Amino acid sequence: MKKVFLISIASLLLLNFTAKAQYKSGQEPDFALEGAQADSTVVLTLEDALKIALNENISVKIAGKEIQRTEYAKKGTYASLFPQINATGSYQRTLIKNDIRSMMGDSDLSRSMTNTKIGNSNSFSAGVSAAMPIINSQLWTSIKISGLGVETAVEKARSSKIEMVSQVKQAYLGALLAKEAFNVYRDVYENAVENFAQIERKYQAQKASEMEYLRAKTTVSNAIPNVFNAESSIILALWQLKAVIGIDLDTDIDVTGEIDDYAEHMFYDIHQHDSIDVSLNSTIRQLDLQAEQLLKTVKLQKLAYVPTLSISAAFQYSSVANDPIEILAWFPYSYAGISLSIPICSGGKRLNDVRQAKNQYEQLQLQTTNTERQLKIAVKNYLITMETNMKSYYSAGDAVESAQKSYDIVARSYEIGRSTLTDLNDAQLALTQSRLAKSQAVYNFMVAKTNLEQTLGSNEYLDYEEVTEE
Question: In terms of pTM, does the model score above 0.90?
Answer without folding.
Answer: no
